[in-house]
Amino acid sequence: MTFHDMPAIHYGFMAIFILLSMILLSALVWYYFGPAKRPAFILGDILSDQKPSLRISAVTPVLNKAFIVVADISGYTKFLKGSRFSSDHAHYLVLQLLDAVSEEAGSFLNFIKVEGDAIMFACDGANTRSAGLKLNQTISKMVMAFYGRRKVLGIKNTCLCSACRNIDMLDLKIAVDLGSISSFSINEKPDISGMPIIRAFRLLKVETRHKANIIVTKTASKYVNLPWRQGSKVLNYQLEDIGPVGVQYYGFDPEQLTEREMIFPDKNPGFWSVFYGKFQNNIGHIIKSISQRIGS
Known about the structure:
alpha+beta; eight-stranded mixed beta sheet
């Protein structure tokens, strides 16, 4: 059957297909070359269950001793730069890495909160020796899980945006401290405060020789002894508004972690799983951007 012999209905389907293709192409051209405008979100949707004023509970001490563990993804700012899609893919990949860390931490540590590209955990330090032994295993597994997941995501990525191409720029820093903390809640959401938390976050910001490292304060290092002896040193850091803090510093090269040491996800995210996760972000981003431009 030649082109001219096709039934009329086929011409109709072809016309619809061409029209839809043109609309999609126009939308993509408009999105990429139109005025840059990221889709906004309505803050009220996030805070819909909260009152306009803060409801802060009384601050009460809950633990005389607690281990604080903060895991932070370093290299995030450079990793984030690039095309518009890079931002969405960067957040997707970072959440995947934080998920890997959290899965291993959850076997012993209590999740507290996520702050940007850092995630905080805590555990009771009343029995410091027992907790320290478990932390040795847990923190080691957190490191192995992070780099195992990073390796898998790097292999499965075929996207050429800057985030997907530069996932190997992301490394893991962990700070560990031991001390007294207090508990409170804001709008019925529990939280903790105390000097161990402040010190842990400050220690993550100090300049170090290694992009991947673990810093354990002198107080916590009496009970936490990690296996990375090659890059281990006793150091003193001068922290702003806090003063000198003695630490056990563990610097290591992620490239030296072997396949045998790494912890890979039980359900290895295949190509289509990674592709679909980022594809959802892309489509949502385009639809929201177009609807905003139409509405403005």
